[in-house]
Amino acid sequence: MTKTSSLPPIHVIGGGLAGSEAAWQIAESGIPVILHEMRGVRGTDAHKTDGLAELVCSNSFRSDDATSNAVGVLHAEMRLAGSLIMRSADANQVPAGGALAVDREGFSAAVTAALEGHPLITITREEVTGLPPEDWDQAIIATGPLTAPSLAEAIQARTGADSLAFFDAIAPIVHTASIDMDICWFQSRYDKVGPGGTGKDYINCPMDEAQYNAFIDALVAGDTTGFKEWEGTPYFDGCLPIEVMAERGRETLRHGPMKPMGLTNAHNPSVKPYAVVQLRQDNALGTLYNMVGFQTKLKYGAQAEIFRLIPGLENAEFARLGGLHRNTYINSPTLLDGSLALKGRPGLRFAGQITGCEGYVESASIGLLAGRFAATERRGETPSLPPETTAFGALLGHITGGHIVSDDEPGKRSFQPMNVNFGLFPPLEPGTITKPEGMKRFRGKDKALAKKQATAARALEDCARWLGL
Ligand SMILES: Cc1cc2nc3c(=O)[nH]c(=O)nc-3n(C[C@H](O)[C@H](O)[C@H](O)COP(=O)(O)OP(=O)(O)OC[C@H]3O[C@@H](n4cnc5c(N)ncnc54)[C@H](O)[C@@H]3O)c2cc1C
Known about the structure:
Elements: E1 10-13, H1 17-28, E2 33-37, E3 60-63, H2 70-80, H3 84-91, E4 93-94, E5 99-102, H4 104-117, E6 121-125, E7 139-141, H5 149-159, E8 164-170, E9 173-175, E10 185-186, E11 202-207, H6 209-221, H7 242-248, E12 275-281, E13 288-291, H8 300-307, E14 318-320, E15 323-330, H9 332-335, E16 348-350, H10 360-378, H11 391-402, H12 444-466
Helix pairs in contact: 1-10, 2-10, 2-12, 3-4
The structure holds flavin-adenine dinucleotide.
């Protein structure tokens, strides 16, 4: 560790998963940190303790398989980067099969002790009620999905009313390769080209009358999750869950997100579809498509089952399923530069779930990156960004630029929070995976697994190089 503690401190606001990791990375690089955490003075609707990095719900960090699972790769990259969150998780692991699950109290206690014991970290228990003052020239806001209201208002005042969302209305996202294009076709409604479009921007799934009716019946009968009290979020116009729309009348969806107008089935041009489900490109790579207007509160199991009734999606693989829950996140692709700094306010970064990632591990990893970027800048250097082939880079790319702005729905947000998944990684170079010797047919599950393994191996190699290991 290079001790350069004569440098001014970096302020980190929020001692959750992201803020704790950011503080650790900064201090380990020899720069002092002041970590501002409000719990102890003011609580949130979900946290129960004053411990740093409290896990508010599940105690799982999900798969620990770094050979073929994207979150497992992220674990491995964080370990390579000296993550405090991963070190504390590993030290407090409880049995959970292939997943990394932790004793939540032991985990939070380990993080808290490490930060409290670090000579370069000062922890202040206070609520930060506005944007960091100008003299906090390097600061990170990592206040999470339950950011206290006055800070949230200040962020909204600085970034614009449309730039801060207070809950997710999430439509499912599908891996493009799992969509059956012998049934579906590319076309924009009325072949509209629009600014930046081609006239063939959507993937369309056709339904006849019987298929539509069966789908509506399944939606209405589907198992939904209930709102928890802390969520308290009313529906608002333009964001009704599809099952609620279906309940309002059999024809509602056919006149809403599933209207067939302006679309001609390329595989069967003479037959007009009765209804159409549209999917819109979700990332710049085109490896993911989201189901337009399909925000839902259906339980995950019910979603997968019901959405696979849609012609062309029978074998759909979901990068994420839909949901509706309390969250606070900014429109990062518009507001942040590639190193997570607010455009127009150099030195002020965001990290964690408030940037539009989802989950404990993802939040901590974005804290790790923000901490490293801030520390580099404090030393007067320019941050080096992780390669987009790494899990760090793939997630950062999603947050700061990977989404597609929707030109045809002015006023609607298209950036949605996301867990890390292989759909965010750039495709492999052609020829990277070849048929194993002795194997007759190389496709389906075997090929998909080989792709994941090659993507994971490439990520870890590139990450080690980026870290200078
Ligand atoms: C109810 C609920 C359940 C969830 N369940 C899961 C789950 O099971 N698995 C999963 O992976 N993810 C879950 N999440 C998402 C989870 O919150 C994030 O993955 C993760 O905690 C985000 O990390 P973070 O550091 O961004 O935010 P947090 O961990 O929430 O940390 C933010 C910190 O900032 C503090 N803070 C807020 N405002 C201020 C302020 N103005 N001044 C000072 N301090 C402030 C808070 O007290 C908190 O300690 C859940 C979220 C919620 C709300």
